[in-house]
Amino acid sequence: MFEGWDALFLARLQFAFTVSFHFIFPAFSIGLASYLAVLEGLWLKTGKSVYLDLFKYWLKIFAVAFAMGVVSGIVMSYQFGTNWSVFSDRAGPVIGPLMAYEVLTAFFLEAGFLGVMLFGMNRVGRKLHFTATCMVAAGTFISAFWILSVNSWMQTPTGYIMGDHGRFLPGPSWIDIIFNPSFPYRLVHTVIAAYLTTAFVVGAVGAWHLLRDRSNAHARKMFSMAMWMAALVAPIQIFAGDMHGLNTLEHQPQKVMAMEGHFESHPDGAPFILFGIPDSEAKEVRYAIELPKMSSLILKHDLNAPLAGLDTIPEDEQPPVGIVFWAFRIMVGLGVSMLALGVWSLLARFRGKLYDWKGLHRAAIIMGPSGFVAVIAGWVTTEVGRQPYTVYNLLRTADSAAPLDAPVVAASLLAFILVYFAAFSAGTWYILRLMNEAPRADEVGVKRTEQGPIRTAGYSPGLTQDPTNAGGSNTVAGQPKEDGE
């Protein structure tokens, strides 16, 4: 069935598919964990029940999203040993320890405190529970720290030495590997993106319930908090993205050339192409709508600064321009839209109409999924722009794949597609169902079954212990059980 298909393309498609599904949930859970910590902290500080109710409301959603993120992330590591075994063999001495650190620090931290956070509200003290919430939030950040360090090293590899058979070995300082040139910029840009993703989801849910009931105090509070994030953090994200772009221009110039659609060099100032259709064969952007010299101003802060184009890069080292070009514009366009919504909300707030303008609420609902789309578009820009390399300028993607036949890779890809759509469609539907219910006073939070674990000693299914029976005899369905039965 799959004879004639390219195994390398299928392996790349499989990893892109699984990581796209996975990236959605950490992007949400990183921001939501911090939001939960803020809500619980405000409740402890002010004593206002609205914060506790919102904490319990979003805690249920976090539990589902966190579980889906863990499940979707597990299969990615297996692909390193199957479809990308050559990459694992050659780069494993560097990236393997970093991924192990993620498990030893972040995952263990999250796993240790998650149960207390989900089920311990009425079982431990308030301060201890808040500590658990903060530890889970810290764990999500630490997880992002290590994973983005790995990805950044693949983008801007430093601190390594070459061993036998082309293997990358760690050099004398792990600091050079961890804090490689692109890592600080990528970490800041990605984590802020996660916060904005969560803010726009929270804002959309708040707007949805405000349209139903403008007097809902819980919807008002979550919408107000989300719009503050949009207004204050979106400009910071645009600045962080600009700094990240300048770093990319320094270390990965051909990626920026593809993002800008610059097939040709511009010695006297390069235009910023708003829209167009890149044609890699003709080496031009058709029907281009340009802003003269603006690309030089953005990238070099000089209208007349020269910018090199893809004509200076060997053709076999150029990334796919069309994909990178449009993914970048989707990300930037959504970032500008987020900023516009934040400014709109400020105007409404200053006029005392934040909870009254239905147009603003509808716009917030439309922008609810924008963060997810933006982070996927950003990921596509980053990863496809790195091609044709897995380790930039050092290890080609074609040389990283395992020697597998196309039908083998295609079969696993098909299985992933079926399982992912079935499992994650159900999970997403359940999250949307939870969001559809309006937050209310005295939220229950995450429900816990009353049956509890089955104990092998002193208690059996179907038996209940009589607390007044000092002799320890059991009862069955309310009836005494005779000794010897």
Biggest pleated sheet: 3 strands, antiparallel
Oligomer: single chain
Instruction: Say how many strands there are.
Output: 9
What would you report as the Rg, rounded to the nearest angstrom?
26 Å
Gap from first CA to last CA: 63 Å
Unreliable spans: 452-485
Mean pLDDT: 86
Strand content: 5-15%
Order of the strands making up the biggest sheet: 7-8-9
Tell me, briefly, the overall form. globular
Helix segment tally: 13
Structural class: mainly alpha
Give the ordered list of helices and strands. Answer: HHHHEEHHHHEEHHHHEEHEEE
Instruction: Please estimate the helix content.
Output: 55-70%
Quick structural overview:
With about 475 residues, this protein is mostly helical.
Description:
The protein is mainly alpha-helical and 485 residues long. It has a domain at 214-391. The chain has 13 helices and nine strands. It has helices spanning 7-46, 49-81, 85-119, 126-155, 174-178, 183-212, 217-251, 253-260, 294-300, 321-350, 358-366, 370-386, 406-436, and strands at 160-162, 168-170, 272-279, 284-291, 389-391, 395-396, 463-465, 474-476, 479-480. It has a three-stranded antiparallel sheet, with no helix packed on it. It is globular. 37% of the residues are buried.
Task: Give the secondary structure arrangement, pairings included.
Elements: H1 7-46, H2 49-81, H3 85-119, H4 126-155, E1 160-162, E2 168-170, H5 174-178, H6 183-212, H7 217-251, H8 253-260, E3 272-279, E4 284-291, H9 294-300, H10 321-350, H11 358-366, H12 370-386, E5 389-391, E6 395-396, H13 406-436, E7 463-465, E8 474-476, E9 479-480
Antiparallel strand pairs: 1-2, 3-4, 5-6, 7-8, 8-9
GO cellular component, one term: plasma membrane
Transmembrane segments: 15-36, 57-78, 98-121, 128-148, 192-211, 223-240, 323-347, 359-380, 408-432
GO molecular function, one term: electron transfer activity
